[in-house]
Amino acid sequence: MLTGKQKRFLRAEAHHLQPIFQVGKGGVNEEMLVQIKQALEVRELLKVRILDNCEEDKHDVAEQLAEGTNSELVQLIGLTVVLYKQASKREHRKIELPKVK
Questions:
Q1: H helical segments located in 44-99
Q2: In this structure, what DSSP letter does residue 90 have?
Q3: Do the beta carbons of residue 23 and residue 61 sit within 8 Å?
Q4: Cβ-count burial of 89 within 10 angstroms (0-12 exposed, 13-18 middle, 19+ buried)?
C-alpha cells in the first residue's frame, strides 16, 4: 500500500504523462490487462483514459484495472486513471518513492 506522501509524489510524476490506453464501450478485458501489465513493467507509472462511451462506472473500471494488473490505483481524476506498479526487474526501475517513516 502506498502512503499519502507517496501518492502525492506519484500524482506529480504522472501529471505530464499522456494516457496510453483507453477503456471504451467493451469495458476492461483480459487482453487489455495483459498489455497494461507489460507497459507497467517498463514504465511503472501510466495513465488510462476511460472513454465517454464506456458503459461501466468509472470507479468500477479503475478498481478492475488496478486489481487485474496487480497495481496501485494512484488517482482517478475525471475519466483518467493513474496506475503504479514497481518494476520487478531492477534495471527497469525508474521511480524512487519517498521513504516511509
A1: 58-68
A2: G
A3: yes
A4: exposed
**What cell does 80 get?**
483518467
Task: Give 45's strand partners.
Answer: 84
Predicted pLDDT of residue 71: 97
d(CA 101, CA 62): 28
Q: Are strands 72-77 and 45-50 parallel, antiparallel or unpaired?
A: unpaired
The x, y and z cell numbers of residue 72, run together, are: 496501485
Query: Would you say 100 and 6 are in contact if contact means Cβ atoms under 8 Å apart?
Result: yes
Q: Which three cell numbers stand for residue 68?
A: 487485474
3-class DSSP state of 66: helix
The three state secondary structure string of 33-65 is HHHHHHHHHHHCEEEEEECCCCCCCHHHHHHHH
Mean pLDDT across the chain, nearest whole number? 94
Residue 92 has pLDDT above 80, yes or no: no
Q: Could you identify the residue written with the cell 511503472?
A: 44
Q: What pTM does this model have?
A: 0.93
